[in-house]
From TrEMBL, chains A, B:
DNA-binding region(s) in UniProt: 29-48
Domain HTH tetR-type: start-end pairs: 6-66
InterPro entries: Homeodomain-like_sf, HTH_TetR, Tet_transcr_reg_TetR-rel_C_sf
Organism: Bizionia arctica
Protein name: HTH tetR-type domain-containing protein
GO-annotated molecular function: DNA binding
Pfam families: TetR_N
Keywords: DNA-binding, Transcription, Transcription regulation
Length: 187, 187
DNA sequence: ATTTTAACTAAACAATTGTTTAGTTATTTA
DNA sequence: TAAATAACTAAACAATTGTTTAGTTAAAAT
């Protein structure tokens, strides 16, 4: 047919994701994307349509990247201990390569919470609702908790997870560990 | 001498602050500032020099706005109970007028954590260090805690406060309350 | 080998960004 | 009342944003 593409879309999206993850959407320019992705504007547009297209693909890629973590979490059956492990796993993903980028989804939530991009916001909200459901499910495994306590603790953990995601942009591994241990001390 | 200014700088900065608080720096344009502040670009520039000048003045104004809260906190002498009250006061400031804007400083930290604005980042970091010192001071009041525990708990509380600030962009008053109560359950 | 087709480079695009300037209006003071 | 001065309006500014287009290069297929 014709000339062959010189890059894999999955590869360049992975690079774009890291850029968006670190700097957010607005603070990432096409010029930065060109440099980081290693391809020309034309190629970016022909592959992803727009800057926003690159962004949504990056989010998709992030979700795939963290999918194994959720699968492991959903399959586990040790109750609260699983939630704690999920917290640790999340931190590992966030802090890989020694970076302090926080959670990409949480960062995006913070940046877009006042935007009018309802679709994106819905997506992020349903992610949190899903998380809460999983927490409730695991909390129920203990058997000894009443529903009211379970709901309260689930709310607490969702916020704690959100906070932790924000905090991984700031603090070091040791403090993060202390934080997680303290969080689960009376759950 | 000459014509009189038709606005008070403190007034228009207050309006600008609310805009930056809600949308962040990059997502706030001069056009939005003109509209919200109710004055012309020329006036903005003659009063504050630049968009960034408006921003730094907004931060200053935010600090003044929340100063009374810190004063109250520093003067208090009921230990952990004071910290808890400080958490509640912080939430009140963030959620005034039914808004969900989070903490202006935390938002700013998140937006600028990858920027090269070292002065601003230093400012925000020293704010956190100060907070931690205050927490340690209050934790010591209990008398029964050893220094190692105090440090761990202070670290925990700083992150919890940071997380709470991020979370007030998302959740409702009731969930926030649950979160605070749970946070202090075993401190 | 020639044609076809698609990915490449690079330049131009319109729109928006933050910023400055020129010209007008109003208030103060002498 | 007239001169001086500073705040106003509005237009132009250069630079950067995301996006598109024109022209070149290279790999398939006939």
């Amino acid at each position: 047919m014709a000339r062959k593409k010189e890059y894999l879309e999955a590869d360049v999206i992975d690079k774009a994701m890291n850029l968006f993850w670190r700097n957010g959407y607005e603070n990432t320019s096409m010029k930065m994307l060109e440099k980081e992705m290693g391809i020309n504007k034309f190629s970016i547009y022909s592959s992803f349509g727009s800057k926003y297209g690159v962004f949504t693909e990056s989010i998709k890629s992030y979700k795939e990247k963290t999918h194994y973590m959720f699968e492991k979490f959903e399959k586990a059956s040790n109750g609260v201990e699983d939630i704690k492990q999920f917290f640790y796993d999340s931190v590992d993903v966030c802090n890989q390569n020694g970076n302090e980028k926080g959670c990409f989804l949480t960062n995006t939530y913070n940046e877009f919470s006042e935007s009018e991009d309802e679709e994106l916001k819905d997506q992020l909200n349903s992610f949190m609702v899903h998380l809460k459901k999983l927490f409730i499910e695991k909390l129920r495994m203990d058997g000894s908790k009443d529903e009211d306590t379970i709901l309260k603790q689930a709310n607490f953990l969702v916020l704690a997870k959100h906070g932790l995601a924000a905090a991984t942009r700031v603090n070091n591994q040791k403090e993060i560990e202390d934080y997680i241990e303290m969080t689960f001390k009376n759950i």
